[in-house]
Amino acid sequence: MLKYGAPFLYYVDSHSIFRFVQGRDSLWRKHYILTDEADPQWKQVMDDCNIKVTYALSPQAKGKIERPYGWLQDRLVRTCVREDVTDIREAQRVLTHEVSRYNYRQVHSTTQEVPYFRLQRALEEKQSLFREFTVRPPFQSVKDIFCLRVERTVDPYRKISLHNLQLKVNNATPRKRVTLRIYPLNNDISEVRFWCDNTLIDIQRVKNSDLKGVHF
Q1: Which of 78, 170, 185, 209 sits CB 3.0–4.6 Å from 202 for a disulfide?
Q2: Are 1 and 133 in contact (CB under 8 A)?
Q3: How far apart are CA 168 and CA 40, in angstroms?
Q4: Which candidate, 65, 96, 75, 104, places its Cα nearest to that of 88?
């Protein structure tokens, strides 16, 4: 999104990354949260970016996406066999080349245009629903958007617990609900931004190893 802009809508399948889908109750298990009553992390990011989401109920419904993927997969396998590629790094090189050729050089059989130039023309003629990404208030940074989120209640000592990690939250009010937006800075450290009532109340840094076991 930072490079190409934000789309108007995402058309995705019902994978658990994109959507919470609850199965039927049974004699051994009762469900208390129904489909779409809980939002996965990805869906929460889409909401913060004001991007709509539509769910396809079958692969066939996403034909415009599935057909190019199928074409690339078939071509990748055949090219690797023809060039005797057995190493994953070499296969990645082949895939990168094929994706670049598909996007920038190959004339699409349906539109009779190269995909990249078709998109550029749509942008110039203002016929595209892509828009420049902006951070919407009250958030202050991309760290508040592209992050992991979890909610906790502040205890009487102004502390919250993340699995085995306890953090004292500055400027917090006891028994208030706070949202932790966790942004990985690198492989070792993450920045935790504490939000309460649409206000950023604290920023701390924690080791990624201390976040193991936290359920997001």
Answers
A1: 170
A2: yes
A3: 27
A4: 96
- Which residue is it, tokens 């296969």? 91
Q: Fill in the DSSP letter of residue 30.
A: -
Q: Could you tell me the sign of the dihedral formed by the alpha carbons of 2, 13, 34, 7, in that order?
A: positive
Per-residue pLDDT tens over the stretch 38-76? 889 999 999 999 999 999 887 777 777 788 888 888 999
pLDDT average, residue stretch 84-92: 93
Question: Residue 71's pLDDT is what?
Answer: 84
Candidates 36, 47, 6, 19; CA nearest to 179 is: 47
* Residue 44, Ramachandran bin (φ over 0: left; ψ between -120 and 50: alpha; else beta): alpha
| Average pLDDT taken over every residue of the chain | 89
